[in-house]
Design brief:
about 325 residues, two-stranded antiparallel sheet, alpha+beta, 9-stranded mixed beta barrel, globular
Length: about 325
């Protein structure tokens, strides 16, 4: 009997140790038929977490009560901004999403460096940003070209497609497709596709000449273990204003895509842009799996907003001319 107990005890200990060892092993992404880490599928990054952190706010809170208070305040601010002073609530199709969590901790900003969670603006760049923002809020509409690229359906709004990719409040779907020599990232907003050319090593990643400046920049990637590293530069000058930040044509954005589990993709990015910022800034966010599909984002089809914007501007011009001395 004693021998039986010892045998059972040894089996239990072995099972516990095996389970513990298995749990301690880091997650390894499944492989595609080509042997690459498989990042393919549908993903979303909806979240209340903003790019920048409110002043004097930590990146993470020590208690759940502080997390809940932060989230409640953020949700109230979001709902008030969405109603736009019209006395109405958020539309039923515009769902509420909580703040993001990374490793189980609520994040108060995407920016993790600098440590204060704020963009390290150069003063002259911040002045340019504020001027562009003021012009957009004034609804300047001398002609269609005076409107922002987002209004003209040339680029996705709120830096949804990036790089770096931020979190819009609607149409945040992404689809990743891999081939032997390229990775395609489809963004639901504006239905734009980034084609990331793959190089065997960073040393062999050669960008196009600086004069070639496509929308969303020129992207080249390579694999570092289970992580897809993507470097992008040569941004189109007209996409300099990204709603929350500026990006110069010669800026360099480095992104890292790592599958952390069957349901989470960790996205880390760094923006090196000495024209606009005193130092490089870095952020990270989670993408979650989604069932898809990504529906058509027909920004131009049947869109009468531009006509209305220009017509209203011409009416305002006429009224101003009538009252002018």
């Amino acid at each position: 009997m004693r021998r039986l107990f010892r045998t059972i005890a040894a089996a239990i200990v072995s099972a516990v140790l095996a389970t513990t060892a298995q749990a301690a092993e880091p997650y390894r992404a499944p492989r595609t038929a080509l042997g690459q880490p498989d990042l393919q599928g549908f993903w979303v990054n909806y979240s209340l977490t903003p790019l920048e952190r409110p002043p004097a706010t930590p990146l993470v809170f020590p208690t759940r009560a502080e997390e809940e208070a932060f989230e409640a305040k953020a949700r109230k601010s979001w709902q008030e901004s969405e109603s736009g002073g019209l006395g109405q609530g958020v539309s039923e199709w515009h769902e509420y999403y909580p703040a993001a969590r990374i490793d189980g901790r609520l994040r108060t900003s995407w920016i993790v460096g600098p440590t204060d969670g704020r963009l390290p603006w150069r003063p002259e760049a911040l002045a340019r940003f504020n001027a562009l923002l003021a012009a957009a809020l004034r609804d300047d509409a001398a002609d269609p070209e005076a409107r922002t690229p987002m209004d003209r359906c040339l680029t996705p709004g709120l830096s949804s497609a990036g790089p770096p990719m931020l979190n819009p409040t609607v149409s945040a779907g992404k689809q990743i497709v891999q081939t032997l020599d390229a990775v395609a990232i489809l963004s639901e907003m504006n239905h734009d596709v980034r084609i990331v050319r793959l190089a065997p090593t960073p040393a062999r990643a050669k960008h196009a000449p600086a004069a070639i400046q496509p929308w969303m920049g020129d992207s080249i990637g390579w694999w570092e273990g289970d992580t897809l590293v993507v470097e992008t530069t040569n941004f189109h000058p007209q996409e300099a204003h990204r709603a929350y930040y500026l990006i110069a044509s010669g800026a360099r954005v480095t992104e890292r895509f790592t599958r952390m589990s069957a349901t989470e993709l960790r996205y880390v990015f760094e923006v090196d842009d000495p024209v606009n910022y005193r130092q490089a800034w870095r952020g990270e966010m989670p993408f979650r799996t989604d069932t898809g599909p990504i529906y058509e984002y027909a920004c131009h089809e049947g869109n009468y907003s531009m006509t209305n914007i220009l017509a209203a501007a011409r009416k305002a011009d006429g009224e101003a001319a009538q009252v002018a001395p």
